[in-house]
Amino acid sequence: MKNENFGFVLSTKESEDKKTARIIGTNHFTLMDLDLNDDVDVKVEDKIPLGKDSEFVKQERAHLSYDDLSKDQQFKTEKAIDCIVVENEPKYVKFFNEQSKEASKLHFLDGISRKLGSKILTEKELNGDFESFEDIDNRISFIESSKDLIVKRVLYELIELPKEKKGRPSYLFTVVKRSNKKEVKEYDEFVTDDSRFIEMIKEKGLLEKEGKRIR
User: Fold this and answer.
1) What is the pTM of this model?
2) Cα–Cα dist 128/86, whole Å
3) Largest CB tally within 10 Å, which of 44, 130, 187, 200?
4) What is the mean pLDDT of residues 134-142?
């Protein structure tokens, strides 16, 4: 449960010998199965502490992909993501404030082109950092709901990015396990370690030397 301090419960299951829960983390939206301690009472939509000192968790069992979830769990995941983004509003407003014209990721948000992203940055430079989702929505005429932009991006990273067949997917907010579906497993998993990524593209003849692509 590295980097996940809390999780929202998507489902629970109890057998004769153990209790388990399926959760989504609140820091990076990590989906996982957990073994729970026998003496705890956990319900769907509860927010529970994670980590080695958690009184709820006996052990982590497995990280999951979105495709591993049932339809009901997927529905609850979407609700949980909305709650998590609202609860952590300062974190996601900070995402807007941290972008610069030299290195902006705003164009990764749904419906935000590089040109529109530049307009957001100009507004920020002229009138100061954004203070809330509402402040963003009021100051940027073409954004109806900045909160929804974040929620949509998180869902896109959970559902669609793990299926990308080409390139190196850009994860902004999530830590995602690649789908186990056959058509996805045919492709190499996304590599988060830059040095290994460079080795891989060197092997495929995509680098003349480190840091310089030739095709």
Assistant:
1) 0.81
2) 22
3) 130
4) 98
